[in-house]
Each structure stands twice: as structure tokens, then as C-alpha cells.
Amino acid sequence: MGKADGDPLRIVGVGAGAWGSVFCALLQDAYGHLRDKVQLRIWRRPGRAVDRATAEHLFNVINAREDVLRRLIRRCAYLKYVEGRLGDRTLYADEILRDGFCLNMIDTPLCPLKVVTNLQEAVWDADIVINGLPSTETRVVFGEIGRYWKERVNAPVIISLTKGIEASLDPVPRIITPTQMISKATKVPLDNILYLGGPNIASEIYNKEYANARICGTDKWRKPLAKFLRQPHFIVWDNSDLITHEVMGGLKNVYAIGAGMVAALTNESATSKSVYFALCTSEMIYITHLLEEEPEKLAGPLLADTYVTLLKGRNAWYGHKLAKGELTLEMGDSIKGKGTIQGVSAVDAFYKLLSQDSLSVMHPEANKSVAPVEMCPILKTLHKILIKR
């Protein structure tokens, strides 16, 4: 990256959800000892309070882990968690993140992180920026970041972890992915923006369960970054097809909500879940072929990413809880302890896009021209439930 000796590589995480926090913690664990060569910090908004019940649970997590307990005592930080459990003190999400606790993933202690709550201070001199924001917040936050980078000579490299999309209907119907949102908001060329995705459950990866991922983008950055990010338990491959991987990243969240519903309503029937898997992957392939001329095949890490999200992601959890009546749609798509359920906005975006007559296809049985959404019965049903209610 053209860094001179004595000028450290500055890596900044933007957004501190479960995966964004874990990704930064993995880098901190791998490179944090090289203080003169690598500096890592993470930005999250200040002021998010930890409620009393979560503070009590956090206290129990701390006391169940001797290594965490000793670390907090050494840092003179243990007392505030005692006070938080008793209700004598309000803990805040940015405060506990400094001690290695992500509000969306309380049961998995991380390494301590350098947390910055001022966005300009966090990003102004960053060499590598990691986007861990929900897709619904990416445009706004990176629009603000773009204003801080107006005077920059060299564009930073951005790695987006975000899975979600928007639909644009004017002048022609099309998908807008998070990397495209970032490029438009910051004027950073797409060549400097990459997407990383894979079959990743954040807590399992931090606990060193074997996993893999793909980093997608131009040759210049994806190959060296794949090497830089690779760890013995976290294998990073590279791929040039950025857009297919991002679209699939959004689609898998859509169909994961349905997978959770099917699992709940059939009492975890393996047969029913496998039928659903066959049908939803067919719809995903159909949609990707509509949106891309030569999309990457739904195989390898792409298929594995879909599988694990349908199996155990937060969107599948959300669908399961809805079907059981333990959550209601009135609670919205931002759930305490889980963060944003990105599949909900993605359902709306894909439905709007595929409802456009200008994308019409021939229906094989009715022998007439129809909007593509008519060929996607699962997507239509999810839209009826989640959007039309």
C-alpha cells in the first residue's frame, strides 16, 4: 500500500454488530502485537444503553470465564459490571466493546478493542475500512464519511461485510449493492471496494471453529487481502465476481426467514426443510440469472453461505420466532440482542424490482408474459407476510 517505515497500516471498522466486531477482533488478535506496523480501531455510535437484564447476563458470562474475569480485574474494569448488574450504573455499548463485549453477541467475549465514537476521528486517515453496517445504514454513514475524505489524495481500500440490497426503478430497474452505495457516497472507485462473505456465524468463527470465506473484487487488492486476512481456522479465498456474491448475500437473508418459518411450523421436519431448500435455491438461481448475464454458480462457498444462513443465521432465527408467535412484526426489524434483520428490507427490494413489467418473462405454463416475481412463489409469500402483513 506504499506505506513508509514508521507509518503504520491503519485499519478501521465502521459499525460494531456481531460480524463487524468479530472481524475486527480477529485482525486485532492476528496483528495487534505489531503495534508499530498495524493500528486497528472500530467506530460505533455512542449512547446505546445496556438494559438491566442484559447487564445481569453479561455479569454471569464474565464470571463463567476465568480468563475474562482476570482480564477485567487487571484493567480495573470489573466493578462497573458489578454495579451494572445491581442497577447502580448504566453501561453503554461502546463502553463494553472496549472491554471486548459486543451488545449483539453477549455470550462470546472478544479481545479488547480500541473504540472511537467520533466518526471523523475514526476514518479520516484510514488505509483499510471494514464496513460492518447494515445495508439500510450504509448509504447514510458513508455519505458522511465521504465528506471527511474530500481532501484525500489516495483512496482507501474498503472491505464490505454487508449483506443486503436496495432496488432502483429509475431510469431502469436494477439492484444497488452495498459496494455500489459506498462508491457513490464516497467517490472511492469500485476498484478499491471489495466484498467479503461466506458461511460465517460470527460467534463460532471467533471461537476458532473452522470456516472459509471469499473476498471479491479486482485482482489488485483481493489476492493480497486474501493472504492478509487468512488465519489457520479462517480460510479466505478470492473471486472476481463481486456483484453475484453481493446479490446472493442479500438473497440468502430473504430465504433464511422462510427457512426459519418452515422449521418452526413443521416441528423441524428434515424432509420439509430439504424441500424448502431445493425450492428456495431454485428461486435464488432464477433471480441471479435475471440480474446478471454470467453469474457465478451457486456452488462452493456461495452454496455453503446459503446453507449456514438458512440453518442458523439471525434471519432464520427471526422467521422461527415469528412463526412460533414469540416475536411480532410490530416489533420492527431491529431486534435487541440480534441487531438488524436485513432480510426484511431485502424482501421488499427484490419484490419491487421483480414486479416491474419491463423485466417481463414468458410464463412456461400460462404461455403469457408476466413480471418475474410471478415465477417466485416463496418471495411473493414472504412479501405478503412481512411487508403487506
UniProtKB/TrEMBL annotation:
Its EC number is 1.1.1.8. This is Glycerol-3-phosphate dehydrogenase [NAD(+)]. It catalyses: sn-glycerol 3-phosphate + NAD(+) = dihydroxyacetone phosphate + NADH + H(+). One of its GO terms (biological process) is glycerol-3-phosphate catabolic process. Substrate binds at K163, R314, N315. NAD(+) binds at A202, R314. The active site is at K252 (proton acceptor). Residues 241-387 form the Glycerol-3-phosphate dehydrogenase NAD-dependent C-terminal domain. May be involved in cell redox homeostasis. One of its GO terms (molecular function) is glycerol-3-phosphate dehydrogenase (NAD+) activity. It comes from the Eukaryota. Belongs to the NAD-dependent glycerol-3-phosphate dehydrogenase family. The lineage of its organism: Eukaryota, Viridiplantae, Streptophyta, Embryophyta, Tracheophyta. InterPro entries: 6-PGluconate_DH-like_C_sf, 6PGD_dom2, G3P_DH_NAD-dep, G3P_DH_NAD-dep_C, G3P_DH_NAD-dep_N, NAD(P)-bd_dom_sf. It is an enzyme of class 1 (oxidoreductase). The keyword Nucleus does not apply. Keywords: Cytoplasm, NAD, Oxidoreductase.
